[in-house]
Structure formats: C-alpha cells, structure tokens
Structure prediction request, 1069 residues.
Amino acid sequence: METYREVARQRKEIYAFLAALFREELKAEQITAMLESGIIERLNDAGCNIDINAFLDKPIDRIEEELAVEFTRIFIGPGKHVVPYESIYVPDQDGRVGYYWGECTVDVKNWVEHYGLKISEMYDSIPDHVSIELEFMEKVIELEEISWRKGDNETALKCLEVERTFFNKHIIKWVPHFCERVQAAAELDFYREIAGLTKDFILEEERLLNEERIRA
Amino acid sequence: MATREMSRRDILRIGALSALALTTMKLNRAEAKTVQGRMDSLVMGGKDVSPVTKKERKAIPTACWSCVTRCAAMGYVEDGRLMKVESNPNSIRTEGVMCSKGQSAPNEVYFPDRLLYPLKRVGPRGGGKWRRISWDEATDELAKRLKKLRDEGRPEKFFFHYGRMKGSSSKLIKSVFLKKVYGVGSYGNHTSICEGGKWTGQELTWGKHYDNWDMDNTRFVLNFGSNIFETHTNHIPVAHRLIRAMKERGVELVTFDVRLSNTAAKSTEWIPIRPGTDGAVALAMCHVIMKEGLYDREFFKFIKATKNHKASVDEKISSLKKHLSRFTPEWAEKESGVAASKIAALARKFAKTKPACVISYRGAVAHYNGAENERTIQMLAAITGNVDNPGGRCRGVGAKWKYPKPKYHVKARKLKIVDGPKKGPLHAKLPTHHVSQLVLRMIKDGSQGRPEIYLWYCYNPAYVNGENREYAEILKDEKLIPFTVTSNIVYDESSRLADMILPDATYLERWDWEDMVSPAQIPEYYIRQALVKPLGQSRDFADVVCEIANKMGLPMGFNSKEEFVRLSCEHTPKIKDLPGGGFEYMKTHGVWHDPKEKPHYYGYRKEVKEKDLKKKGVIFDEETGVYWNWKKSKAKSEEEAKKKGYRHTKKAYKGYVGQKIGDKVYKGFKPDKINKSGYFELYSDILEEKGFSPMPTYYPIPEHRRKAPDQLVLTTYKVAMHIHSRSTHRKWLAELFHDNPAWINPETASRLGIGDGDRIKVRSEVDEIVTKARVTDNIVPGIIAISYHVGRQESGRYASGRKSPFGRDDDIDLKFKWWNEYGVHPNWVIPNWVDPVSGQQRWMDTVVTVTKA
Ligand code: SF4
Prediction:
C-alpha cells in the first residue's frame, strides 16, 4: 500500500504528459517552453537519447514544422502509418482484428462514461485512441491520489482496482507493441525516444499494478 | 528494441519532469484534454451503449424477480425494446453483481411461446383447444363468478394459490384484496415445497424466520446443504460476499453435501454426507463443544435449555451437556458416514474461530427431520455465540413499506385445506408455513370442502409438487374443481389444465416495491418499474385484480399496481421525504437506504423500556417470564388471558413485549406465528406438548432405515442457470442446461450393472420414470441425484420442443436451436409427504429402485 501511496502523484503526471504528447502536435510556444525549462535534458537523464543539438541549431518554427510532419507521418498518414487505436491491434471475441470500432472501442467508451467522465465534444474520432486510454488512467489515479491524501484508503484501493483492471484489459494488450512500431517508424529522435519511454513506463506499470499487489 | 527496466527512482524522476512539462508547456489545460470531467464515483455500471448504433441506451432502475432474491437491477431499453438487464450498481445488497438468471431477462419478455392473449378453453379440460377472448370478457366472467360466491357468503370457495408473490404484489393481492376486500382468509402458497421446515425450525428457536449470513465479517463458514454459489433465497447478495471473503480474507468454507455441487467444488473442503443426516453431525459438534467447554457462556443467559425458564446459566449448561452426551462423534459417524475425527476437528474449529457462521438450506431441511435439523444447526450457532452478531447468523432485516389499506370490515372466511390432514401419516403438527404440496390432495379428499374456483398464479401445481401424474388428474377433473383459472406468462403443465388463461405481464413489464433481506444488515428500499409496455395483451395480474374489484363494486382506492406503488412511496416514512418526492426519487434511483443507519446486530440484548411494560393490556406470564399485551391476542378479557396464560392463548405471540431474565426485561428473541418465549429456545415446550423431543434431537428417516440394501435414495438439486420450474423457456439458459441425466456413483452403478449413459428405470412407491445415468465420482454411493428444472412437457419450444398455442415463429434463434433433449422430471416419482413437525415436503427422502431400462 505504501508503494502506491508514494508514487500516485508521479504516475498521474506521467500519464498526463504522455497522453498530451500522443494527443496532437506540439505548438511552437510549447517547444520553446520545453527547451527553456530543460525538459529534453531531463528526459535524457531519465534514459532517453535525444540529440539536443537538433533543436538548438534551428529556428523554432522549423522545429515545429519538422515535429508536426513527423507526427502526421507516424500517426495519421497518408500512406503507411502506425495507427494509434486499440481495435487495430486487439482482436474481438470472435477473433476479428484490424478494423475500427471494435469491441474494445465500445468497451473503452463504456469505461470512460461509466465513471461519470465524458469524451470531449471537440474530439471527433474514435474512443480507443492511445491518448484517451492514458488520460483515463490519469483520471483514476487522480482520484486515487486525492483519496490517499484524505486518508480514504478504501477509495484509493478501489481506484487501484479500477486502474489494474483497465490497464490489464486494455493498455497492456497493445500499447507496448504500438510503441515498438512507433520506434521503428520514427525518423526523428523525439518521437522514437518518447515511444521508448512510454513502453518502458507501461511495462513498469504492469509490474507495479500486478506484482506489487501481493505485497500490498 | 531494447527494453530498459525502470526503477522506482526513475518513476519519481520522470514524474517530476512530467509535472514540469505539464505546467511550462501548458499541456495540462482542462480544455485541451479529451477525457473530461472528474471521477466522482467508483461505481461501475448503470450505463450501456448499443454496440450497433453506438447510441446510449435508456437505463431504467428496476428489480430482478427471476428468483426470490429480487436483486435491484438496471434495465437497458432501446427504441422501446428491452435489450439487456444488469445489476443496479448503487444497491447495497448486490453491490452491482448479477447472476446468469437475472441477465437472461430479455428472453423472459420475448420468448416466442409466450402467452399473449386471454384464452378460454374449447372442448374438454386439458384437450388443448383454445379460443382468444377479450380482456373484458375475461374479467366480466371472473368478476361475476367471484361476486356470486361473495354475495352468497362463501367467498372461501374461491381458492387462490400462488407460487411466488412478494413485496407489493403480495400486499395488494393477498393482504388487501383477498383478506380485507373480498373476505377470504385461506390461500395456497408454496413455502413448504421450498424451505418451510427451515422457517419452522427458526421460529421455534429465535422467533421470526429468515437468517442472514454475515459474510462481510465472518472468519469461517460451515455449510449444511446450501448450494449458495448456484442458488439461494438471497443468492447474489450473499454469494458474492462469501466469494469476496474467501478470496480477499482467506475465509474457509466447509460444505456438507451428498453431491459435489459447484458450491462444494468451490469450497475449501467438501465433506460427503449421507442424505438426511446433517442433524446428526451438527448434534455431535454441539456435543464436542459442550464437553470440551468451548461454548460461549455469556450467550447462555439468553438461551432456554431447561423446562424452568428461571434456570441459572450453570443449570442450563449442565442440562444441555447431559442432553447431548449420547450424541458422540462416533455415533454420528455411523449415521452420516462423516469420520468422527473430522466432526470433532470441525467442531473445535467452528467454536474457536470467532466469528463463524453456520449456514443451511434444503440439503439439510427438505427431509423428514428438516425442522429438527434446522433447530440443531441453530443450536450450533447459539452455543458458540454466533447469533445476531457481526460475522455470524443474523436475523434478517428488510425494508418496511407502508401501503394503502382500504377500509372494509369483513371477517375473512377460510377453507381448511392449506395445512394438510388433521390426522394420519400426512399430519404435520406445526405447519407454520402451511402444507402446500397437499392442497390438491385435500381437494380430492373433499372432507374439508372444495373450492369452486381455483386460480393459480406464478405457480405450476402439476409440475412443482410430487406425484405429477395424480396432481394433473386432480386438476383436470371438472367434478373436483368446477372452474380453473391461471395467470401465467407461459403455457405450462398446469395452464393447459385451466379453463381460462390470463396472460400475465413479466416482471420486466410491471411495478412493485420490494423489501428482501439485506446482507449488509441495513434495510434497502427498492422498486421494480416497468421497463417496457407489456407485450401483446398481457397484463400484470395485480392490475387485473384491481379491475375485477371495481367490476364487483368493491373499489380499493387505487386502480393499478403502479398507483399502489406510488401511494406506498408517498406514505412510507423516510421514503416520502426523499428529494423530489419518494416516488420520483425511487423511479430515478431504484434503491435507497439510510446512509446514517448502522447495521442491526444484537437486537435481543436491548432492554424493554419501563413505560412499555406499563402499557394498557401488558401482563406478566409467570410460566414463561414473558411480558405480553393480551389485547393483541384472541383473548376476550384479561381474566381469560391470565387464566389460559401466554402459551395457551390464541395468537398471544402477537402481543409479545419482552422476556424477563434475572431482574431485567429484554427484547429477546421475539416470536412469530407461535407462542414461544423471548429466549433462544433450545428447550421447546411447544414441541414437547406436541409429543416431540423438547431439546434438539435426531430423527432418523424411517424409509431409509427400512430400505432394501440395493435400493437408492433419490435427491434433487438446482443448477446455477435455472430458476426452479420457471426458466426453461429462456433460450440462453436452456441452451446452457436442458438435460438432466441421473448422477450415480461408479461403485453403486457397477453393483446395479449400470454404465455411463445407460437408460435406467427409476421406480418409487408412487410412480416410475425412465432416464439416463451419468456415472460420476461426484456423488456419494447409494444415491441418485436428478436436477428438477427440466423434463418439461410444455413451456414452449426451447423447453420441450413443443409449440404453445398461438406461439410465434418470429424468433430467429428458433432456427439455431440445436438441442432436442429436454431431460426427465424427477418429481413424478417423489411422493407428496411431510415432515411431521413442519409439513415441509420431503424432497430428498424418496427410496427408489433403479434398474437398467
Ligand atoms: S440472484 Fe435472483 S434476483 Fe438476483 S439476479 Fe440472480 S436471479 Fe435475479
């Protein structure tokens, strides 16, 4: 139980951060802020391998454009790209796989809505996008963290149960594989390294949520 | 692609950089996020989306009725069609869990053989010819016939017999219409073919029946013949708690059963036992506990274990020790086949693990000695102090609704056919829940009079009792019963013998308030609302009753069950003040419990207030130590009440106030139905007076003693995916279970020359069936076990292969139905007989001769 209490806040922030990076392209001012606050260095400290010089040599709108082109090429297309939706990777009960709006898509939407959350009206795509799944985790861990702080261990543990179930039912089934495909498809350091970081984090989460359980 | 293991420290570091990035890069703005809102509750459920259209379905809180547990539920409706039923996640009883029976609810509404029009027979009764009639014609005829009987002063010649009727349905039809308005006080129920003996055993010991098992707090569970993981009167609410207790807290469950049921299989230990001998094992456990001083001395204060109610705790203990001295584990081993050492070890474990819970059901009570077995099991709970305590066997608590009662002053008249014969081998001396399996026999006998109109509701007398052949013949005989009517959703073995069929609404198309016992020991109020309009011309029978009352000129003050439910919501304390009004609140939420209420435990320990003892009519009874209000009894005067005393005044228990113990007066264990004292009675004056042992004892089953060595005992059972006799028309359930070969132990089978899959003849003293054998180790030798859900002659194509009159062909799954075996019903060979104490039907006692067919 102690382990969970200690890392709840950080886990929440990581999910939020990764979700944001997969959600959409970074804007120029966001890239500037990233460079100014030393986030690239910190990412490298944490095991990434991003060539900082690739950022320093160029004007900011060039970087913005390069990253945006890379983002579109990897996740959106046209042409061969790495689809960021779960149902492309995870088969239905009858074994069908590789199409949009599969059983898992409906299930993700159900999870989100069952807990009184809502998918933004601005969002016009399908609910099993990687960033939505990561954001859902963030929301549950947020409640977990608040509950620990309030001393409401019961709710915190229930949150963990929800996290564990959702994670095992959805995220672990495809996100690591998805990340590997992003790593392979990436041409720039940034998305390749973020995908690697995501994968490592998700595998660590698997250990934490499933193995730690016994000790908790 | 290398994967690098992250350490906890990495997490902290990446967490910190993420936090920094989120703020500096403004990645955390609420409006930028796709998932919006905040997790405000962890309740899962209550919403559903169509997998085809992706549209959210309409969610309507309601209550299941597939079994008597009546779980709060949620129905999902799409374009007026019921698509799905799940649990209501806000229920403290179910906590969002639902069983397969509950989830098959849509089948109940749409099965193609459903009765959808009022029908009247053409030609001889049972000839199978019908014509459709209008509702007006049906209710006119019924109202006319009923009015005639009432006008002639013989309303009791209308005999109403129900299989299940609970909550508001029961109050509207039975308490209001039949008793108060129409004036008939005799009606048939079905408790004695279920678990009536268990209730009598409880009434004799702790008063009012219904035991809740506090799984959330228990540390050990001992199970005598309850198939709790597959079925139970409070199935899901208790079963899912027990599973949780086992998984999360490592609670052990030890099950005695003649068969490896799924409950036995999922228990920590299954202990095979000979049928009808549970009481012997429980007695021997009590023997060990008393002898080794493992009893809870404190609880003895509230126990009556001697004739004299003033006995000291030491006297009670020594009286019980003496009584139990002959019931040794070695003796019990000879009776039950359970090793003496096992009995002793379990007794010690049960007594030393605090709190522990002993549970029991039909495996222990549907016998000749059923009520007595329950009394013994109650004793086991009592002497270890596991009564009405957290984690023990508790007295059930349920919602207390107030409902409209029209003012009619009629004295209800009775037809004395509900308690069986007054003498002979079928006489039950204390049938506190009646003897419903003998109602048709009593009608045939005729000595107590016969009804002129026999109407059955949610009941299938020709299938659910024993001796089906005889009961169908009685029902068919127009000389015995001139007019037969049923309200039903399905054309079954009995509706085909009706003169008129009224198509009932299913529970998914009607209203009710409900009150089933809460395993949380906090009452839950909940309602059932109609999810969809009744299909075809079907109508809730309670609504039909309202119309008939109006046609007879006997208005009741409401015209439908929905109105009755609304009025109840507006009158029930606490409910009526809920935000938006009681009815609206209940319609929106489906369930309510008082969040401030604490679980009910130890009610017996409360002292009675001085002023309650001084109330008018309250007198003290020396013989029992009971304070009671004679005015609530049948006594005509105080003088008469005092002369007859508490025990011998009719309905004196209704005036029970408290029990004097030492110099204090306690609420004690309030009686119901019989004039028991406020003690937990292990010494029963009532039984003593009726010629039985006053202290819990063991009555061996006479037929088992007499049976020839190669004869077997037939026992029946339920499975997880069927509801008594009420679900074989549901295709999802029928697909899972539609055949019922007889289980037989390999040793027994080989002795009789029977191989697996052989056709066998099962013969009892009353009839004979031919079925298949399944040779399996999962049953003790000397027995055959046959499940009784299937073996239907009617109930439509999914159940029997037979199309019902006016059955439809519009169900696509009829094309995909792949099974054409429907099983064999065992009740044909089971006699309708009684536990001589309670009148309980002895389902598990039949001796049969089994041969290869
Ligand atoms: S336990 Fe009974 S009431 Fe509850 S869901 Fe199952 S069938 Fe329905």
Remarks:
- Chain A touches chain B through 68 residues (CB under 8 Å).
- The domain at 2-215 of chain A is CATH 1.10.3480.10 (TorD-like).
- Chain A has one domain: 2-215.
